[in-house]
Design goal:
This protein is α+β, with helices and mostly antiparallel strands. It contains 13 helices and 20 strands. The chain has a 6-stranded antiparallel beta sheet. It has a 5-stranded antiparallel beta sheet with strand order 4-3-2-1-5. Bound molecules: adenosine-5'-triphosphate (ATP) and magnesium ion. The site of adenosine-5'-triphosphate has 20 residues, from strand 11.
Length: 457
């Protein structure tokens, strides 16, 4: 492998450099001393604290690999198209790192000025043109980069990002930041884009902090359109906010994004929160919502790349949830589905018992009463919310999804909410857990001991 150096920028500021030496082929990262002395408050990753240290491959690799697509075919296409030869993250980012998730950018040093001088260009695009791009994704699902290339989003599914402004759609060119992600859905699953939208919107309606979602048909092509939580409008310009997912934050490679067999568990995720969040109690509750809404919705894909941190100046928080999609709509065969993240040792939808929820609550520092109440509320409200999103759309597709989903979704959640009500009224529950935040077994972290999360949403 040849030697390579890439400058790393956050929100346009130079923060450090990533290097790969020819002899060892190992990647390293170092913050720029001027960034450290200039009052830096945002680290590149929560695994890379602001310090004058040379971070080795083990520290930087999960972050870098987590930025580029997981699909080896997409990586190969990128490498071929941009002549990078290698498909490892640093090679791909050398060619494609000018616009990444969050606020980070990578560039070869001799192209820094070119990257910085790019105009912010927005090219209006019609619904028919967006439909054309969606059709192209269906026929060539592993090709989802912008024509001008400088764009990268992780994940397995086809998607692209665009700008919504002044009630119009625009393609982003040059340095312009996109505001929405357009997902055509998983082709082999009927109406999956609409199922994803209904799940996201219903989650938001029942009080889970979720990225804004719309369902649209562009020139007859259906898509879920998700608002980017890592962008914020500031007058006519769009600012980038920094983010990393919990797979990166837990120091795991994307191939280990699922807890089984080697990925981050709820405990690992809580450790990240305890070590990094400016309000661990709030983020423990957000982690619990992530766990519970995936179970309630019958969404099997709640892995560690489907939950992220926002790294804001001086503070870190769990970002709004995204990529939530019920599988009740597609469960034609017999058998129970598993959720991705173990709930206190339980995983199968229909078989997670109050004692499992209690165990998960303990991991997060939440009282039994809090977890029972929250699960009961989500389970009793989610099915109606899901149905009402579909009623508002009122099409053949939404009718079909209702027919395929509602019986299973409602039955599963009626059982769950009955179980929670029973657990709440049960007299044999230990008295000291009623109402009060749990104070036993606090989690030990590198910051010391966490404050247990308080009750209430
Ligand atoms: N609303 C959002 N705002 C900002 N970034 C987002 C948003 N939604 C997704 N992302 C980023 O884009 C990545 C891919 O998106 P998403 O998870 O929706 O795609 P996917 O291909 O369906 O994923 P998977 O591989 O889990 O099936 C996410 O891991 C996250 O980093
Ligand atoms: Mg995802």
């Amino acid at each position: 492998m040849s030697a390579l150096k890439l400058l790393v920028l956050l929100s346009g500021d130079l923060v450090g450099s990533v290097t790969r030496t020819e002899s060892s082929a190992k990647t390293e990262f170092q913050y720029d001393p001027d960034y450290l002395t200039g009052g830096a408050t945002v680290p590149l990753s929560t695994r890379l604290p602001l310090a004058r240290t040379r971070f080795g491959e083990r520290a930087i690799k999960p972050y870098l690999e987590g930025l580029v697509p997981e699909d080896p075919q997409v990586r190969r296409r990128w490498a071929d198209r941009w002549g990078t030869g290698q498909t490892d993250a640093i090679s791909l980012l050398a060619a494609m790192g000018w616009d990444c998730p969050g606020a980070v950018q990578f560039t070869e040093p001799d192209r820094l000025a070119e990257m910085r001088e790019r105009a912010h260009e927005r090219i209006p695009c019609s619904e028919a043109e967006i439909g054309g791009r969606l059709r192209a994704l269906h026929s060539e699902p592993s090709s989802w980069e912008l024509p001008d290339g400088h764009w990268s989003l992780a994940g397995q599914q086809s998607k692209f990002a665009i700008i919504r402004a002044d009630e119009q759609w625009f393609e982003a060119k040059g340095a312009a930041a996109t505001t929405h992600i357009v997902k055509p859905g998983i082709g082999r699953l009927h109406h999956q884009a609409l199922v994803e939208h209904a799940t996201m919107r219903a989650a938001s309606m029942v009080g889970v902090k979720t990225a804004g979602s719309q369902y649209r048909e562009f020139g007859g092509e259906p898509a879920a359109v998700v608002e980017r939580f890592d962008r914020v409008a500031a007058g006519p310009t769009v600012l980038r906010l920094h983010q990393e997912d919990l797979c990166q934050a837990a120091g795991r490679l994307p191939e280990d994004k699922y807890e089984v067999p080697h990925g981050p568990s709820l405990k690992d995720m809580m450790r990240v929160v305890a070590n990094t969040s400016d309000d661990p109690a709030r983020d423990a509750r957000r982690l619990f919502d992530f766990l519970a809404i995936n179970y309630v919705a019958g969404a099997p894909d709640g892995h560690s790349k489907n939950i992220s941190l926002l790294l804001l100046p001086g503070r870190v928080e769990i970002a709004p949830l995204y990529d939530l999609a019920s599988a009740f709509s597609f469960q034609y065969r017999k058998g129970l589905r598993d959720v991705a993240l173990s709930i206190g040792g339980g995983r199968k939808i229909g078989e997670v018992m109050p004692r499992h929820w209690v165990e998960a609550g303990k991991t997060l520092g939440l009282s039994d009463e809090y977890v029972f109440n929250r699960v009961r509320q989500l389970a009793s409200e989610f099915p109606d919310a899901f149905a009402s999103v579909l009623d508002d759309i009122s099409s053949d597709a939404s009718d079909e999804i209702k027919r395929n989903t509602m019986t299973r979704l409602s039955r599963s959640n009626a059982d769950l909410s009955a179980q929670m009500r029973k657990a709440l009224s049960s007299d044999d529950r230990p008295k000291n857990t009623r109402g009060a935040p749990r104070t036993d077994r606090p989690l030990k972290t590198s910051r010391g001991t966490t404050t247990p999360a308080s009750n209430g949403g």
